[in-house]
């Protein structure tokens, strides 16, 4: 067991052929306690392990524009954190390529089950997530392009996420732990999963297949800051640190998709336990959206499940 270090628990930097198998990490006595950090490495496997961390559970980073983090295999792990379950992209100076995230459980986690970010000039491409369970997790999927360094926009393309079952609670998932995630502008409505690029650098080719997410619903319109008729008011926040809650109140309860080129929904089920004033899915500046077998279940909900703005090539079947 690796337990309670002063900062990051373990860091592997510019390594090759790393095998991490069957370890236990209990790392939640300091706010910056990641479970494991993989930095600009080539050929890494993280398997059959348990991570309980105050900060991100499994975290990939790229600290150098001369290197990339590639050929990483993450499978059969259980992860609980007061931040993100599986995350990469802060830092993202070089890039991330050929990452496989298969058959993992994220639970009792404050932020996103998975976060992929390209915000420091690097790239994220050829990423596969398959067979993910996300239970009692504050957010499920967060994909983000940003520009934290002026003139250095990230790039993201070819992301496949399939066979996901997730439950998002109405209460704080990490309540009572030594270091909880921050209380941000509470009370506030539950954030949707978000896929957000930039106006001049869109996220490309995202596929979501066999996804079921259950949300608590019950959004309070008194907290609303942006309506469907004023999506231009959602700030870009290109230089900000990427987190699922960065846009504050959004007019979607299921998925918010902005500045994307090519997205496919296939057999996506969104369930809202209580009636919500928001729309299930919002498309904003999306070029090419193929929504096949999207099913939305919401009590008393007769509003359209998808709202499209500034978008082209939207197909629903």
Explain the overall architecture.
The chain is mainly beta and 317 residues long. It has one domain (2-316): Pectate Lyase C-like. Helix content is 0%, strand content 57%. It has a five-stranded parallel barrel with strand order 13-14-16-17-15. The protein starts with a strand and ends with a strand.
C-alpha-based Rg, rounded:
18 Å
Q: List the strand order in the largest sheet.
A: 13-14-16-17-15
Second-tier CATH architecture: 3 Solenoid
Percentage of β-strand residues:
over 45%
Question: Termini separation (Å)?
Answer: 50 Å
Total beta strands? 20
The CATH class is Mainly Beta
Parts with pLDDT < 50 across at least 5 consecutive residues: none
Which of globular, elongated, flat, extended, rod-shaped describes the shape?
globular
Q: From the helix content, strand content and strand pairing, which structural class follows?
A: mainly beta
CATH level-3 fold name? Pectate Lyase C-like
């Amino acid at each position: 067991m690796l337990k309670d270090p002063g900062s990051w628990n373990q860091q592997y930097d510019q390594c090759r052929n790393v095998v991490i198998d069957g370890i236990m990490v209990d790392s939640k006595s300091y706010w910056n306690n990641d479970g494991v950090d993989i930095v600009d490495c080539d050929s890494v496997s993280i398997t059959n392990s348990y991570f309980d961390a105050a900060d991100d559970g499994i975290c990939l980073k790229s600290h150098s524009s001369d290197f990339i983090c590639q050929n990483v295999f993450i499978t059969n792990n259980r992860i609980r954190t007061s931040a993100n379950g599986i995350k990469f992209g802060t830092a993202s100076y070089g890039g991330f390529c050929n990452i496989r995230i298969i058959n993992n459980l994220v639970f009792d986690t404050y932020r996103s089950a998975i976060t992929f970010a390209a915000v420091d000039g690097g790239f994220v491409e050829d990423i596969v997530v398959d067979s993910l369970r996300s239970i009692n997790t504050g957010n499920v999927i967060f994909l983000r392009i940003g520009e934290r360094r002026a003139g250095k926009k990230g790039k993201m393309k070819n992301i496949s996420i399939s066979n996901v079952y997730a439950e998002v609670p109405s209460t704080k998932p990490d309540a009572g732990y030594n270091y909880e995630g921050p209380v941000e502008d509470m009370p506030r409505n539950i954030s949707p999963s978000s896929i957000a690029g930039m106006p001049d650098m869109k996220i490309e080719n995202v596929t979501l297949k066999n996804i079921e997410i259950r949300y608590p619903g019950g959004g309070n319109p008194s907290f609303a800051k942006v309506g469907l008729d004023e999506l231009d008011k959602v700030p870009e926040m290109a230089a900000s640190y990427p987190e699922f809650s960065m846009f504050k109140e959004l007019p979607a309860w299921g998925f918010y998709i902005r500045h994307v080129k090519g997205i496919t929904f296939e057999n996506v089920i969104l369930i809202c336990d209580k009636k919500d004033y928001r729309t299930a899915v919002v498309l904003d500046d999306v070029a090419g959206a193929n929504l096949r077998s999207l099913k939305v279940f919401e009590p008393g909900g007769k509003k359209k499940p998808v709202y499209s703005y500034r978008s082209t090539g939207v197909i629903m079947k």
